Amino acid sequence: MRYAPALSALTIMDGELQPLSRLPEDWERALARHGGPRYRARQVFRWIWARGVTDPDRMSDLPKTLRSALAGSVPALAPPATVVHTHRSLDGSKKLVLGLADGAEIETVLLPVARGTETLDADAAAADDDGDDEDGASADARADARADARPGPTRRVTQCVSTQVGCAMACTFCASGLAGLRRHLDASEIAGQVLLGRAACGPDEVLRSVVFMGMGEPLHNYAGTARAIRLLSHPEGLAIPLRRITVSTSGLVPEIAELGRDFGGAVGLAVSLHQADDAKRSALMPVNRRYGLAELARALAAYPLPPRRRITIEYTLLAGENDAPEDARALLRFLRPLRAKVNLIPMNRITGSTLGPPDPARVLAFQRLVTDAGIGCFVRRRRGDDVAAACGQLALDPTRSAPRRASARRARDA
Ligand code: SF4
Fold first, then answer.
1. End of a domain among 30, 48, 78?
2. Helix residue ranges, H only, 336-387
3. pTM
4. Ligand 1 atom closest to Cα of residue 394
5. 7: DSSP letter
6. Rounded Cα–Cα distance for residues 30 and 12 (Å)
7. Does residue 318 share a domain with residue 393?
8. Separation of 285 CA from ligand 1 center, angstroms?
């Protein structure tokens, strides 16, 4: 099959879609217009997403004419980001600082845990919406247990990815929120973080789960997030099961419904709640002024969770702000209609905020109030805070965040 000249550098473009954002069916459409067989589309997709190869010259089972067309395509078939720095934490987590084509930088974090210890690890609780919820007796959990018994990599990695450069939501305790929104990432830039993350895994590590909890509000960039999920979970590519993908939101109600509809509830859902009193939550998280707690609870109750799965409620404990017994009781009232578990996250200190974590006794007292009510409640072990990779610490370099105040103000006014 000859592709040139019909499949020229320009005609291989498929509208505005970046080549790395294309699913096999998008590649099929792009190639079919020029008489290319369907299986070529799957081959290209597999090279990129199963093998991590973006250099057409290395796609050895493609005809030379197709390789040349891909190499000359505009926009280019190039890695969506490059690793600028790797920060290694003493606890084994790694933060990758990634440079994008336009010069913006984002961060992604790899969190390894030893096989078989995930449910004991509190970080896993954030990432642990992988089918072994409830009592761990689900079919998925049994399959995982069988996999654990086989020889293989000894550490499973959860990767936390970013969805925006900065964030417009302006949560007062979050470094990304302080920086403001610069732009959305496209699907290739979101899913591409996982290609780079997989390449950065050690020989004893396997990338197992992905959480959309890095810089940005994933549901504010719904189109990019949804397409990235499709890229990551496609069986011809990385094939990460939907149950091992978790999206975290500050509470964008219409998009929670959209996520539920688009993926049938199979994608794990986490909510950054942090306060269960409307007035106090609005002060911490401006998004609450638009979607109050009652509306949020209705959206969560309607999320089509599979049997045995739970929504993860993330609750960053801030000394003197939301760590009192009455705050725990408000949280319990919010949780009453929901199938949910709670992750307590003692705040990681960030530059530019006077907020800080409560002392450990207060954290334990809060946890006890929630667990005594029969709700699963875990205290997330700190990971990566020596390299500012911990929750709420992912941020733009403030010296490159000129628009931050304006966009934070826009979000507050929205
Ligand atoms: S907590 Fe999440 S939604 Fe809020 S500012 Fe930070 S990144 Fe954005």
1. 78
2. 360-372
3. 0.85
4. 7
5. S
6. 6
7. yes
8. 9
